[in-house]
Structures are given as C-alpha cells and as structure tokens.
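hi! just following up on the protien thing from before. the input was this:
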Amino acid sequence: MCKRELTEMQIVNQRNLLGLAIFGLMIIFFQIDRRTWAESSTIVNQSEPMTLDKCLELALKNSTTIKNSQINIALQNLRIKDARSSFYPNFSLSGNYTLSDQLRKIQRQRENLDKDTFVLLERGENYNFGLSGRYTIWDYGQRGLNLLREEESLESQKSRNERIRQNLIYDVTQAFYNVLKAQALVDVDKEVLQRSRDNRKRVEAFVQAGIQIEADVAAAQVREANDELNLLNNQNQLDIALARLPRVMGFDPSVRINITKVEEALNQVSLPSVTLDKAIEKALKSRPEFAENSAGQKRLRYSLKLARIDRLPTVDVEYTHNMDLDAYFDDFFDTYEHLEHLRDWRAAATLNFPLFDAGIRRRQVETAELQIQQNQETIEDLKRSIALETRQSYLNLTRAVKATEIAEKQVTNARLNLDVTKGRYELERAFLLELLQAQTDYASALTNRVRSFYEYKIARTELQRAMGDL
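and the predicted 3d structure came back as:
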C-alpha cells in the first residue's frame, strides 16, 4: 500500500509540475504577444494629433511599395556581386565511391594475385577524392560588360525608387488634405443645419402666433431635411477619407489616425513662383523617370555589345587533382616514396568557339537593337507626356488660386445678403423663401470656399510632383 500511495503521489506531483510548466509558458507567450501588440499599437495609434510631416515619415517607413523598392535595391546589389564574382576562378572539391567488378581485375593485376587467391574477394570498391579549378582568361570583355549592365540596372532601380517615393508623398498629402477638407465641410454642414433648425422653430412659433401659414413650416422642414442630408453625405466622405489615409500610409484602413487641423485662413493662396516654360523645363530635367530610362538605355547598349561579342571565342584554363584514398591509406604505412602512382593531375587550356547555332546569336543582336529603338521612342513619348502633365498641373494650380479668391468674395457677398435678408424678414419685409434662399447661397459659398482651398493645396502638391520637386 505504501508503495502504491507513493507512486500515486509521484504521478500527482508530475502532473502538477507539468501544469505549472504549461502555465508558465502561456504567461511567457502572453507577455511576448502583448509586447508585440504594444509595439505595433504605438506605431499606429497616435495619442497626439499627427501633422502632415509625421504622416509622411510613417508612410515612408511602413508603405509596402517603399519596402519592396528597398528589397529590389538589395537584390540588385546581389546581382552586382555575382557579376564581380565571375572575375575570380572557381574551385570545387569532389569525392566518389565506386563499386565495380572491373576494380577486382585492376586490384588483382596491381597485387599480382592469381584467380584462385582473389576468389575470396567478394567485390571491388574504390574511394576517390579530387580538387578542380576553372578560370576564364579571355572572353573579349563579356564579364566587364555584364558588370556594367548590372550597375546600370542598379541606377535605374534607384531612380525608380525615387519615383515611387514622390508618388507616395503625393498620395499621402492628397489623402491628408482630403481628410481636412471633409472635416471642414462637416463643420460647415453642422452650422448650416443648426441655422435651418432655428429657422424651422421660429417659423413654427410664428404659425402658432398666426403670423405665418402652415406652408411656411413645410418649406422650413424641407430646407432642414436637405441640410441634414448634406451633413450625412459629407460625414460619409469623411469616413472614407479617414480610411484611405492609413491605407496609403501602409496601415490597415480600420485604423483611425487623429490628424492636426491646419490653422490657416482659407484664402491664403499664391500663384506658382515660376513660369509655365520654366516649370516644363525643370520637369524635363528633374523627373526621376528620365534618369530611369537613361540608365535603361545604357543597360540595353551593354546588352547589345554582349550579344555581338557572344559569337567570339573564349579561352579557359582548367586544373584537376585526384587521389585514390583507399589505396593511399593501404600503402601509406608501407612506404611513402611509392605513393606517386596513387595521385594524378591534369591541366588544360580550352578554346571555345561557337560554330553553328541556327542564327540564335544573330537574332539576339537584332533583338537588342530593336529594344534600344523601342526604349528611345519611349523616352521621346515620356517627354511629351511629362510636358503635358506639367502644363495641366500648372493650369490647375492657377485655376485653383483664382477659384479660391472668387470663393472668398462669394462668401463675403453671401454673408451680407443673408444679413440683409434676415433683417428684412424680421421686419416682415421679406418672404420666408427669400430667407431660405439667402441661407442656401451662404451655405453654398462656404462649401465652395472649403473645396477651392483644399483643391488649391492638392494642386500645388501635384505641380511639385510634376516638376520632380517633392
């Protein structure tokens, strides 16, 4: 009984220890997961409002396109290292084990055994070890051209990354200003809706007092309903803008980023500081697409040279050194002087000259020439496209400046008209419809001012991107 009780206690203790171990592991994993979640949450959930610069900083760190472009740079650097490695010789070690009936005959001849004596040997086997090396001493510059081609590919990738960076900056800036615009429109709609509700309550009081008729109440209610619908629409646009901003920054769209409201007047606008011709000239010099295509053109020229010299002969040198390991260890302890017959080496120089390939190399040359022509046409078309894009961006910015100035004047006039109409209405010298129309004009002027100002902000960033100046 004592032994049985002792065994049961041991089982219980082992179970308790196992449970404690599992519980400890769960705590460790929970702490790791909580620390990981906390680290990620500090990146996404900002307790303080974020400025545009902060949004751009996070986007440049977390965007998938930026991360992939950095990986492409790393991959291209590896290709350059591979191209440089071709200038060095290649060495390799090899070993083999051979089981063959022919080995018995060779061993019989080497040991001068007769057939009856060797019949006890069931099989013939051999272990062999070798070292080999190869180096190209002349290839008409193929390795050098291949290295130059890979270096130009790196320059092209750097220019492509710069284009990706500028596009990301534009997308984040546009999304940031769209959020501010949607917030401003919601604020305007709330103010307009509150005014409509006050009018409706005032009209209802006038109807009860017998001053106005029921039709005036219906008109005020329709105006209030329309303003409420505008508020709902702009709140929906705000939700969409708040979802798009983290998406372009590289975060989940469900994350809500609190951004700083820009404290500036909605009429602070200015025309471009350069002329249209200067803007186009700067774009044709600064856009990263030109550097990317220029590097691509050089790479294609190197490919053409490689295709042309691929038909020329190359000279290689080879060296191999082999050793019969099983015989080596058998004879090593007998006499070291008689081991030379167990080693063999070979050195050779080879000339490789392509004789016939059914026109493959000739077609490679023709393909490279056509690709150069195609890329040149792409560059010329790119110049025209960028000139057009810069012109459109310049004109859009000029229009946005004028539209913002006009919208500011419309707000001033609409406010004055509303004040006058409201005073006349209170003196019973204006109809309710005139007051509602004045309020509609004022609300429309406020909305146009908000839209015009943030369209100006986006148009200015768009011109900077068109000029390659982001």
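Confidence is low (pLDDT under 50) at residues 1-8, 27-42, 117-122.
The longest helix spans residues 142-208.
cheers
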